[in-house]
Amino acid sequence: MIPVASSPTSSTPWKTPRKLFPGRVANAEAMSGSLRASCGRPDRLECMADDVRNVHEALSAITEHWQPHRLTSINDYDVKVVKLQGEFVWHTHPDTDELFLVVSGQLTIQLRDRDVVLDPNDVFVVPRGVEHCPKATEEVHAILFEPKGTVNTGDAGGDMTSDLRELS
Ligand code: NI
């Protein structure tokens, strides 16, 4: 049996990152190291803003589809967790891009000229002003990055408009 030779390049845990820019899909797993950590407390969701938050625990606390909850904030942006199932509403955000990171499931972001299909760990940025409508045949868990005050239905309004909630 011939041993497999290791080389400096094959031993690195990093994959070559893809470029991130609006309108293209990137893979979060390929672009990040291990971010797993824990504050070691059973009441993790009640940690202060500068404590560790756990994405999966946050998602497990959510019971309503299309209802974003604030995971944390950075500068003037909110990082939101949300469960998605069914079809949302066509809308645009005239003043901001919107970042989707899929945690589990398969999310289709319908654009007027194509569908963008996101699998777990895929990241996609809908550029500002671009009309879009997320759709999930089966339940999707996702993270959103948006400026504070961004309304989920953008300029469309309607029944699916919901205020950002705090995790409890
Ligand atoms: Ni949107």
Can you describe what's shown?
By secondary structure, the protein is mainly β. It has one domain (18-160): Jelly Rolls (Sandwich). Helix content is 8%, strand content 35%. It has 3 helices and 9 strands; from the N terminus they run H-E-H-H-E-E-E-E-E-E-E-E. The protein has helices at residues 8-11, 28-31, 55-60; strands at residues 25-27, 69-74, 77-87, 98-104, 107-111, 115-118, 122-126, 132-147, 165-166. Strands 1, 2, 3, 4, 5, 6, 7, 8 and 9 form a 9-stranded mixed sheet that branches. A hairpin with a 3-residue loop joins strand 5 (107-111) and strand 6. The protein is globular and about 40 Å long. The N and C termini lie far apart (57 Å).
Please name the fourth-level CATH homologous superfamily.
Jelly Rolls
Radius of gyration: 18 Å
By CATH, the architecture is named Sandwich
Helical coverage, percent range: under 10%
Low-confidence stretches: 6-22, 32-47
Order of helices and strands: HEHHEEEEEEEE
Overall geometry comes to globular
Number of helices: 3
Q: Give the total of beta strands.
A: 9
Strand-residue proportion: 35-45%
Give the total of domains: 1
CATH class: Mainly Beta
Distance between the termini: 57 Å
pLDDT averaged residue by residue? 81
CATH topology: Jelly Rolls
